[in-house]
């Protein structure tokens, strides 16, 4: 009788273990590690809503509305009254339009073509993109997905979509548009957050810099996370 009681207890424990393990598998995390996430901002710019954004401008690109385009500038997104949190996840689509030159310098004529993401004054992305592709002169390297300088990756490395249409299809120009999915999870506790995106593009040999090289973003999503 005693052995039957132990065996029943063991069976119940085993069942509890199996249910817990199954729940862990099903939901991707165990009870202790459940993330308390809250979306505090999302914008696909389809309604051209630019509240909370400084220096905002909206254009249509490839059948969607995007924040941009920018050249030698950028935008600030200013959020306040965030719920209590430990981390923040920032994600968006970044479109690199036309003939970016990556790490190339060419004595200051072409580049480097730098793009930055700053949160509350701290630099989280400081990279270059190369959209020129490979030609007879070779492949101008880009820093992304690593930071600039000292990183040399092939053009369009890490792209979510490398073959989108360019904005300015100038005769003989390489480029098109490359879309990157930027996602950063950062330690953050403040009730306010300022996201700034900027570029330092170099194109001294053109009369229309914004047509030669520009960028835009779409689907900005910001989540606060408690562990
Ligand atoms: Ca959009
Ligand atoms: Ca350039």
What gyration radius follows from the Cα positions, in whole Å? 23 Å
Percent of residues in helices comes to 10-25%
How many distinct domains?
2
Sheet having the most strands: 7 strands, antiparallel
The parts where pLDDT drops under 50 for at least 5 residues are none
Which structural class should the secondary elements be placed in?
mainly beta
User: Approximately what portion of the residues adopt beta-strand conformation?
Assistant: 35-45%
What hetero molecules are in the model? calcium ion
Which fold does the CATH topology of the largest domain refer to? Jelly Rolls
Mean pLDDT: 87
Distance between the termini: 46 Å
User: How many DSSP helices?
Assistant: 2
Output the helix-strand order: HEEEEEEEEEEEHE
Going by CATH, the architecture of the largest domain would be: Sandwich
Q: What is the CATH C-level name of the largest domain? A: Mainly Beta
Number of strands: 12
Shape: globular
CATH homologous superfamily caption of the largest domain: Galactose-binding domain-like
Layout of secondary structure:
Elements: H1 2-27, E1 36-43, E2 53-54, E3 58-61, E4 64-70, E5 74-79, E6 87-98, E7 114-119, E8 122-128, E9 161-164, E10 177-187, E11 193-200, H2 209-212, E12 213-226
Antiparallel strand pairs: 1-12, 2-5, 3-4, 4-12, 5-11, 6-10, 6-12, 7-8, 7-11, 9-10
The site of one calcium ion has 7 residues, from β4.
């Amino acid at each position: 009788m005693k052995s039957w009681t132990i065996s029943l207890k063991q069976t119940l424990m085993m069942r509890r273990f199996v249910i817990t393990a199954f729940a862990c598998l099903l939901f991707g995390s165990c009870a202790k590690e459940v993330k308390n996430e809250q979306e505090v901002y999302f914008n696909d710019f389809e309604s051209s809503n630019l509240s909370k954004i400084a220096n905002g401008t909206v254009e249509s690109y490839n059948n969607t509305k995007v924040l941009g385009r920018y050249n030698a500038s950028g935008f600030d997104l200013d959020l306040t009254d965030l719920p209590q949190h430990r981390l923040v996840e920032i994600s968006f689509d970044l479109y690199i339009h036309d003939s970016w030159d990556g790490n190339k310098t060419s004595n200051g004529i072409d580049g480097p073509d730098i793009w930055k993401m700053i949160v509350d004054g701290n630099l989280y992305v400081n990279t270059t993109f190369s959209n020129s592709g490979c030609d007879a002169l070779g492949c101008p390297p880009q820093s992304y997905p690593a930071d600039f300088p000292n990183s040399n990756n092939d053009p369009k490395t890490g792209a979510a979509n490398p073959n989108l249409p360019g904005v300015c299809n100038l005769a003989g120009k390489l480029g098109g548009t490359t879309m990157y999915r930027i996602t950063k999870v950062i330690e953050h506790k403040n009730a306010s957050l300022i996201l700034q995106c900027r570029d330092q593009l170099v194109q001294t040999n053109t009369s229309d810099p914004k047509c030669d090289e520009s960028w835009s973003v779409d689907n900005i999503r910001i989540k606060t996370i408690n562990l």
